[in-house]
Amino acid sequence: MDREDNRKWFTHTADLVIEHVDRPDGRVQIYFLSSMADSKIVYNELMPKLRLLCLDEAGIEHVEKQLGTAGGNRIFRETDAISRLLSGDIYIHVEGAEYGVTVPSEDTVGRSVQSAEIETVVLGPQLAFVEEIQVNLCILRKYLPSSLLFHERLLVGELIPTEVSILYLDGIADPENVNTIRQRLQDIRAESDMDAGILAQYLADNEMSIFPTLQLTERPDRAVQGLRHGQIVVIAQGSPFVILGPTTFLRFFQSPDDYYLRWNLASFNRVMRIIAMFISLLLTPIYVATLTFHYEMIPADLLLSLAQSRSRVPFPPLWEAIFMELIIELLREAGARLPTKVGQTIGIVGGIVIGQATVQAGFTSNILIIIVALGALSSFIAPSYMISSTIRVIRFPMILLSGLLGAVGIVAGFSFLASHLLRQKSLGRPYMYPVFPVRFSDWKNSLIRAPLSLLPRRLMFFTPKQKMRFDPERGRQKEDID
């Protein structure tokens, strides 16, 4: 990359720095972006070492020897040199040489490794992914120090390519799943903005579905567990989340913490999350349908309390429920967008004040506030933010159907959801596995979490090449050392 080239490629780049080691028009130049690279490396390390050479006669081989750089740092094309500069590396060029040399800079701007904020950790490692792809790769390598962990690098996007990494365990992950992800990434024709959330939408089998068919996680332990079962991990530069696929609907209700707890506690938590999903989805619609069409189903004592609670409410149950659900969603969205301390205050104080005010003003009943609050709490129990958001959105059409058609509307809406889920696929695999197709042997690590000694097999959903995780007979042995 000569001087004319850098003027061509960096016409409006004020942070491009070009240093001549020997004299203003010397043969050896150092290129770096002051906003990306650490200038201390250039002035305190590289330039003193290069000044020890006889630069008028030095070739690129002498520069490599003096700096101790390996052959992998050689750059033969201008576009590669520009890409490395934009990544924060330092480029050294000798006029007349066939190639240049890059030196990595260790002080690029980025966020340090912290604990997970979205997927909170009760037990387990207190680390989360960051926006730097190399740091995320380092974290996974430390969690999974195995030569079987294969890593493929792709550039996705046309105008501004984004570096994307595909990771999987060779001999465990199904090659068909790997090929599917690789092909879909290569087929993306978008210009830029290749965040993990955007990539997941491009990789999804059905982009029009409201249900997520690929997992997003910021927890390395979840990614490592997925790799060990046969899933594929996709990491995108600039995103603190990684993609896991293929996946099933039930895996969105599982947490890595389930494996750190005793099996009976973990199984209880998983069942509670499934129950909470039905409560969040059906509790308010059942209230609306019962008060609108099915008074005869309400016990007499409870009916009297409902009549007294609704005596001042001028709206029908349908619009009353939608009004309260919208208030809950507004409070949730406001709390998420405001600073942390202010957001918590808004959520607590706003809920109490608005709830009491709406009851006193006669806009709603006490019983509906209890029901809506239970539904909102139940939607937050799911470990995955993606699936909890989906459930909250689906609740609104279910309320409308219950208000228009009663119990028939609830059954119709639930049947539509069931048929829709049964048709979904994740990288070509059935989304509702192991419920459909039915495979009872995998229920003990899906609906519940059986004791670890009873889980010798990997889930057949991932079609792993190595089906056994350990010898089941040895796993059941309890030998004491005398």
UniProtKB/TrEMBL annotation:
Keyword Membrane set for record: yes
Protein's GO biological process: spore germination
InterPro entries: Spore_Ger, UPF0353/GerABKA_families
Signal peptide: none
Transmembrane segments: 274-295, 367-387, 399-422
One annotated Gene Ontology cellular component of this protein: membrane
Top-level taxonomic group: Bacteria
Annotated Pfam families: GerA
Keyword terms of this UniProt record: Membrane, Transmembrane, Transmembrane helix
Protein family (similarity comment): Belongs to the GerABKA family.
Name of this chain's protein: Spore germination protein
